[in-house]
Each structure stands twice: as C-alpha cells, then as structure tokens.
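Why this split exists: single-chain examples teach little about how molecules sit against one another. For that reason, every record in the complexes split bundles all components of an assembly together and asks for one structure covering all of them. Below is a record exactly as it appears in the raw files.
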Amino acid sequence: MRALPGGARVYVGIIVVSAVTILLIGPYTGIDLQTLIVVALLFVVAESISTSVGSGGKAGMSPSSAVSLAAVVLVGPVGAALVGFASCFAVRRLAPVKRAFNGAQFALAAFAAGHVYLLCGGVVGELGREDFPAVVLPYVAAVLAHSAVNSLLVGVLFWTLGQVRPRGRGRFNWRPLVAVELSSMGYQMLGLAIAAVWGGVGIVAPLLVLLPLFIARWAFAQQVDEARAHEATLATLCQAVETKDYYTRGHCMRVAEGAAMIARELGMSAERVQKIRYAGMLHDIGKLGVPTKVLQKTGKLTDEEYAAIKLHPTRGYEIVREIGFLDEALAGIRHHHERLDGRGYPMGLVGMEIPESARIISVADVFDCLTSTRSYRKAWSVEDAIVELRACAGTQFDPRMVEALVRAVEREGWETPDIAEPPGGCYGSAAAEAASLEDEAAAVPDPGTEVSEPAAVSAEERAVPAPAEGAAPTTALSTGTATGGRDR
Amino acid sequence: MTQRQTEGPPPRRPVGPEGGALSHQRRSGPVWRTPRPVRALLVAVVGAASLASLVWTSATGFVEPYVALCFCLVIAVGELVRITLPGHREVAPIASAGAVGYAFLLNLGEGPSDHSPWQVVAVVACGVAVGELPHIAVGRAPRVEDVARRVLSAGLLAIGFRPIAEQLGLSGPSVTASLLMFTLVLTVWAVDALLAAVLRAERLRTRLRVAAGDEMRAQFASGMAIGSSGVLIALSCTVTGLAGLLVFSAPLLVAQVAFRRHAEVRRTYLETVRALSRVTEVGGYVENGHSRRVSHLSHLVACELGLAEADLLELEYAALMHDIGQLSLREPIAGGATVLASPREQRRIAELGAGIIRETGVLDSVAETVRRQCEPVTGDGDEGVPPLGSRIIKVANAFDDLVGENGDAERREAVLDRLRMDAGTEYDLQVVEALATVLGRGRPYGA
C-alpha cells in the first residue's frame, strides 16, 4: 500500500470517515446489545474463516456476507453497520489501509441495505411465523441495495487506483462479473434463514447455514487447486513430447496461447476458450508416432515420410479422444491441417465443414511456425507472418480467425521464442544467435523479400511434391503448405 | 515401429481401475451366488422394508399427505440431479437433505407433525424411485447400493428421532432439538460410512479398516453439508412453513455445484493422464496397452495389500507414467520391455521419467515412486528400501513385459514362477504373493 495514489488515498479517507460518522451518530436505541455482540463476533469469525478457506478472491464475495445481511434484519441499519465495521478485526494478513477500507465498505453497504429494508416495510428483530411471506420482498430489496453499494464502492476504488482500463471497442466482458454477483446474492439470501431460526435456536442458526457454505467454498478451493495441477501436468507432458524435436520446443504452449487469444477475440465463453486452449496444447501430440529422424530431417522428404507426417493429426486424436471434457476441441486436433479449399489432410474437408476449433488452431499453429526458427529457415517477424496469413486467408485459413488473431496480437503482443543454438548444430550458429539476441523485426529486414526468400521457397519445394501454379498468391499459399507439411 | 498402431483403435475399456475391476465380474451361475453378498443383502433388506412401509402407510393412511408430497418431490428432484464424487461415489445431497428434513420435521405452523417413521421411509423411497426413473430411462442406472444406503440413513434417522421427540414433547426450534438432531446425524453418518466401507472392501477386495478410513475421509464434507442442511430445513420449516424447504436447499445447491465441479476436474485429470500415458505406445516405445495393464494390475495388487485411497490414486498416476522417461530417448529400446534392458539403462529411464513428472510441480511423490521403480527390494545405495508403490510397479511391469499382450495361462504361471525365484532379492515377496492371489482369482487379466 506504499504506492497508493493520491486520489485513492483521499477516497479511502472519505469512505472511512463517513462510516465512522454513521457509527458515531446512529441511534443505538432499541438494539438488543447481546444479539449485536454475538452477531458481530460471528461476522468476524466467519470473515476470518472464509479468508483462510477461500481461494484468493476469485470465488467472489465470501459467504460471511450472509451474516451481515442477517444483522440488517436482527439489529437494524445502525447495528448492521457496526457489525460490518467489525470485519476490520478479522484475523488475516492485510495492510491496515485495506482493513479500514473493507470495514468501512461493509458498514456503508449494510447501512444502506438496512434503510432500504426499513423503507420497504421490513421488521427489525427476531422474525416470527406471522412475518413470513411479507418479509421476503424487503429482504430482497436489501440484498440488492447491499450488492449495489458494495460494487459501487469497490468500482470507484479500482477507478482511483487506475486498475480499470477501458477494453477495446467498448466491449465489456460482463459474464464473470454477473456470475460473481449472482453467487454472492445467493449467499446473502441465506441471511434470512439465519434471522428466521435465530429466535428458536440462537447461535446454532448461523452454524447451520454457514457450515454448508464453507464446505462449498472448501470444495471450490480444492477444485481450483486440482484444476491448476491438471493444467501443469498437461503442459509438462506436452512439453515432454516436444523434446523429440529441438526446434518445436514451447510450440504447443504458444499455439495454446494463440488459439485462446483468437477464441477470446471471437467472444467465446470462458469454458470454450479453455477447451480450445487445451486442444491447442495437445494438437501435435500425434507427432510422437512420427519417427524422430523424419521430424528432424533437413533434406527433402520422400513420399513415405510425408505420408508418415500426414498421419499425425489422426494419431493425436486417437490418443486424446478419451479425455471426455475436450469434446468439440477433439475435432480441432483431428482437423487442424485441413484447408478451406479442401486440399488439407486428413479428410480434405472444405470451407465451413471444418470445425471451428480446427480453423482456430490451424491459424495459431501456422502463425507460431512462421515466427519461430526451424531447422531449415530462420524465424519470420510478426509483421511478415501476418502478411503471409492474410495472403492465405480464404484459401488455407478462415479469414475471420486470421483477423481475430491480428487484432489480438496487436493488442496483447506476441511472445516469440528465443531459440538458442541447438545441440546438434544443424542451423548456422551465427544466425541462431542473431535470431535469439536481436529483435525479431531486425532479424528479417524486408517483408517483401521474405515471402520469396530462397530458404522459404526451397522448404516448400522439399515438402510439397504436387501443386505448383506459379502465380504470386499461389507462392504465398504453397509456402503455407510447406510450413504446414513440415512443421506441424 | 509406427505401422503397428495403424490397425484401428483399441477396444474401449471401461473407465477407471475401479470401473474396470467392477465390470469384469460377470455373473456366473444363479442369482444368489453373487460375488458381493453384502451388497445383495443390503439392497434386498432396504427394498423389502421400503415396500412394507409403503404398503403399511397406504393402509393406515398418510398423515398430512400434502406435506409428504412436497418432500417427496424435493427428494425426487434431488435424486434427479445426483452427482458422482471421486471414487465412483454417488451422492444426492439435496435428496438426502430433504430426507433428513422430513425425518426431523417437528411442526409446520399448523400444529405438530406426527408422521410415523414408516411414513418417512415410504416417502423417501417413493421420492428416490421417482427421481431415478429418468436416469434409468436413459440408461444411466444408479448404483443400487448407494440408493439403498440413502433410504436406509433416512429410515434410521426417523426411527431414532421421532419416538424420542414425541417423548420429550419437542415442537419447535430449540437447543435440545438441535442437539438431538446433531447427535443423530453424526451417529447415522458414521454408521453409513461404515456400511459404505464394507461395500467398498467387498467390491475392491481391500481391507475393511483401510476402506473405513477412506470412506470417512471422502464422505466427511458432503455428509456434514447434507446433515446441517437437513437440520436447518427441519428447524426453519417451523417458522417459515413449506417455503423454507425450497429456500434453504439453496446453500446445499451451492455446495452441490462445488462438489460436482471438483469431481469433474478430478475425473478429467485422471482421464488426461490416462490418455497421455498412451503417447509412449504411439511413439513405439512400449507395447500397446502396456501402461494401462501395468496400472490396472498395480491397482489390484495394491488393493490386495490394503493401500489407502489417496495412495491408490498416486500409484495409478505413477504406474501410468512409469515409462514416460523413454520419451527422452532418441530411439525406442529394443522391444520396449524395460525389464530386459540393462539395469543402468533402466535407472536412466526412471530418472528421466521422474524428472519430467517433477516438472509439473504438483506430483512430487509420484515422481519419487517412478524414480525408484527399478531398484531391487533390498534397496540400492543408502536410500534404503524403495516405497511400496515402486515395488508394486516393479513387479507389475516385469510381469507385463514378460507375459506380453496375449499371454495364456501357462505363460502367466511360468512368469509368476520366475518372479518368485527372484523374490526377496529383486522383487518384494509380499507383492509377488499378492500378485499371485490376484491372478488366482481366475478373472482374465488385462482383458
């Protein structure tokens, strides 16, 4: 908190001062002191537990806000504000400024919720049987007010911290935010349950309500850990497979990133983005079935060798098809060498017959191939690679995916691999060092000459026996084929 | 080397070693000669009791039929959205909480609810049956013993609670009532976990004490969530009426979503490792299906030796990935069978594999198991005896390498004899004997 900007400092000051003012002014008449103390204690305990059980902010608001809302019903707005402010004393590792802000934020939100609750005709105190259907509406209003004030306070804080940056072209990713808000409102509805059984069983009530919630939170945290472990294992195994070919090191992770960037740019749901990411990671797993000497061969490929390479998407699909959750992404692995004009493999699908995920991975794959060094040529610059992708859009690639990648790369940038000298030394050591040390733009000076550069063309001649139509666009196109045939 | 794999996909095997262990047991002979008598007994007893309760309650008339119908519906919905926890455990938190709530229901505002325990059993059984119908219709038959356990728990709670509550004159939320409910929930949870352990031990042929520990650990979180929600429903319904039944299932819904996602990630993790363990086969480094057969065999042997569930999972990962070090070799070793390679070569492959697995940062003990998989049982250097997991994998790997994909009974016997000869110096005697027991059960191994 040392680097807190001036605006944020003023803002936090205002919030804390106003919360303290409310607490000092607020009439404390008619509040059952014992209930107040017990509820405040509970809130502190719940907050402390939730931070130790929780998974670091990602799961949204902690279930303890249910207690805060129960306080609105049991002890009214001022009491609830006091309970909210008590969260400063929760046991956790947090800077004093953050503590003060959190407490003040809870206090203000609860205070506002309490007044809304009273305005809508809610009754303060232990609820009885006769209150029941009537109290639900004011309570819902209070929950909404609580969420609104909370979001507002936090939103302004982030704005003063400069952490909210406007996303490109006014598109705002609202889905995760809505999910968090809905789940926290679900939690807060349970405050009513606490208030309802408070009269009968007192302190046992929150225990009953909070126990399942904390168990849920624990399970969520476990799930997050497990998902992380899964991801790490998957990545490691993919990289282990790549060790066969020195030049493709890191390829799968970069294709995964590229595919995810395209998918995000197309506005896909987080879940689909994740699947496509995994498919990108796994797209070349079938290469393991290709003999090492074919993969690392620097000379011309024979027909049989080319046929062996052509088998790898199908092989990969056979390996991973039992990973149930990948479903549509499996098709992406199987068809990532198809081309829009139908000259790809393994099935020669045409146009939109090719699954969307395959079209995404295909673009990301070729893009990474072009921008990284291979045994038979140097890496291209990002700009050249984009020119090449655009030239092949419509024949080899889906133009929509190409444009999405271009937009994403422009905004987020692209990390090109730095290849040190390979152990075998099949590539000129000076050139490899140049590629690794210099900026990628400096390594290849002229985009115009790059496409028809001898190295690239010879690669194409080596790999592709059949199509040779001569015209300039075709050259670009079959260069794509060449990289496709050789690299992926 | 690479042509071998092109002949079509291998036949799909049932998912998971537990699923595998289960599905191989074809029923031979008449129905009463089942390999799992406890399960059959449990299902029969619970089924008969439910039927009897239903008939009895119908004959004497349902008390407060409207309330019974509401609970029955909630239980049915909960059963419909049941989930499978890691380790093939089917649970239906909402249905169970509804059942607990109905068993503990004291008062719905219009006077005390005095339904009999038999009515509770009848209502729960009806709800469960209705909720399972759609599952059965689409061919996802439940695990009957889990369903039976759910009905049984509700019945035990009702039989324990209702007479006492009547005697104490409990009629609304009070500290006594909640204490009584908590005690009962804990007791019945323990009984249920024990029953589950007996079933698990019978299914996996493992030791009861180990199975009990596994079940207690696995069902603690879900059991507590279900129990406290059930108590909450029962208590709050006295204040809020039947609306509380719906509103207060909400926290459990959150818990259920969390459990389900956790189970999904777990399953995906296992599926991923299982699928990727095949890369060594596709790469031509080992024989087709070798990793899976070793993993399957290790699992059976480990169950026989009484490993706990967490260790079983780690062993499975280690067994699936035990040959992954070969990926770092430039070309496959001849025949792919590590047992025939020189000890130095074997050790190098194990070290390389462990290195890869350690890279993940999350599977350190798996890496350790893989690293020491080729050490003789007497130990190697000053590190002492290798971990049990490594010793099991060593035996299973040697057995599978020597028998091969289609070894007949005679060959298996010969290989077993050969392993026995080296037991005590190279292989662990206990593990070899466990392997003999597993193979002696007469189930076609690796089929």
